[in-house]
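Lab channel / #folding
Pinned by the channel admin:
"Please post every new chain as: sequence first, then the structure tokens as a reply. Keep commentary short and put observations after the output so the thread stays searchable."

First post following the new format, from NK:
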Amino acid sequence: MKRARSSEVFLGAGRALARRRLAPLLAAAAFAYLLFVSVKLAGFGAAGPAAAATFGRPGAAGVSEPLRRGVEKPTAPQARARPGAVVSGYGRITGEILRRQEAGAGPRRRWGQLGNFTELERTAAEAWVSGARAWEEASAFAGDVDSIASHDVGEGLPAECPSSVSVSGGEAESEAAVFLPCGLAGGSAVTVVGTARAARPEYVEALERSGAGNGTVMVAQFAVELRGLRAADGEEPPRILHLNPRLRGDWSGRPVLEMNTCFRMQWGRAQRCDGTPSRDDDQVDGFRKCEKWERRDIVESRETKTSSWFNRFIGRAKKPEMTWPFPFSEDKMFVLTIQAGVEGYHINVGGRHVASFPHRMGFALEDATGLAVTGGIDVHSVYATALPKAHPSFSLQQVLEMSERWKARPVPEEPIQLFVGILSATNHFSERMAIRKTWMQFPAIQLGNVIARFFVALSHRKEINAALKKEAEYFGDIVILPFIDRYELVVLKTVAICQYGVQNVTADYIMKCDDDTFVRLDIVLQQITTYNRTLPLYLGNLNLLHRPLRRGKWAVTYEEWPEAVYPPYANGPGYVLSIDIARDIASQHANHSLRLFKMEDVSMGMWVEDYNATAPVQYVHSWRFCQFGCVDNYFTAHYQSPRQMLCLWDKLSAGRAHCCNYR
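Reply from TO:
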């Protein structure tokens, strides 16, 4: 007992000594941390809540000449941002970033002023010249646009909808492109017979910078994609299914099968299969999203002789389990089949199910009008079977419901609360019709308090332009812009929306959205009324301190944008701004002083930032202006197909602001 007692005393003294030695170290670490915080975040504690979300410098409000029909010139706002004001919807630190950005010493930054926009201007000039010629051809066209639209599925495509398509014979090709004139239907199958090429060296700069060798790795991969039609020149076609087998993985040596979608050059969330099977309840049409295959990095436990004998003795049934390797191998032929199901696409290789990918919102089976095979592969043949015999999306008679019910009201003489400009592509007949039948039926539009118009540029094809002309003449809700539609020139459509909202209507606010955006107009109008009407408003899903991409396919060069970050800007699918900001934009464009950038939402942020130099702007952020897809209780929902638009409208009519995220 004495020995045990002495041991306890000795241990207790040791712990006390350790605590005494450790205490100064902890105190020094805490002091260093507090010193770091006080230096890096000095002044953040002064930021407090503010009633109005404003920031800016004192100065007179810059406005243009009064609008026609006697619109009065607005007076300079009296209110100014208080020190420490926070932008609505953001936290304390982010609000302080914006406040400091405005209150910083030195000359004010002119966003992109050093940029060289000659390439964009040259593209715009060519588009205007080509557009004038295209409009003359469309006006002189005397054919039947109803029958033409049903056949117009792309250059070089046949007028019929064949039940099968095949491309075979000859030597193996490194790439293949197969047109599916009328898309796919449930049960349609596309089969690719090919050989995966051997790995090739590829340089990865990030690996070299990390010190992992010279940055050279061996890569073996290819892609099989179901694609749709691109909406405008310069824009990549949507990837309805992107299937990317990576035989050596992501430079890791472990094979991976990746699936994804891409719409309007925005990739979705990837689904990756690495040999680990999906859960039993994670299925598509009864198939697992990812099947199991052998993995060299996992050693599975084997049954011992004793456990095997015991299981046999007690009569326990043993289910035989088959193991398969990764379905693709270098320099070996394969047969890949993609079959369209009710809930998604099913991928089979060599007759065995490998993976299933659920349908993503915004895409329908009939949208898959092409197959592209690219990368490290030799294509021997491609077969598409059980194809649909008709494509409803390309028939004006089936898409456009020529009814008096859907015609637009004329522009009123009296002032309105909101003007909505909707950016739309030339051949998006079904998207425009879906909007007419859904959120353009809100009482605010029907009663004339809100006016909505589509802003559409021209196509290279005179038949499509003639069909657009007929649609515009009947419904009266389309503003045709006489230039050829290109992705880089979307910013010109935004300028046109501001000009129309200033010159043709008398509105308090202007909203810009896309033709795949569903807008809850009642909620948007309610949101507008909650903010200070004496101050300019910029409302949307705001981005702060976003940096341009300098590498990759969609890189922005330093000549296009020399600054390190973009100005604060709202995402393009939907945002609201005050009429005085739109008036300033239209005025600068009229006197050729408006600076343009190929990304229209960044351009709007740049213009609002310029206006904010003289009149403080309310920057109001809300994540319910959804950038990607839809969330419950949304203000706007993006990437919505015509079918989803109708579904959203039905749910709203039933009093539920829920999404229609079809799998």
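NK: The chain has 15 helices and 27 strands.
TO: also worth noting, Residues 311 and 317 are 8 Å apart (CA to CA).
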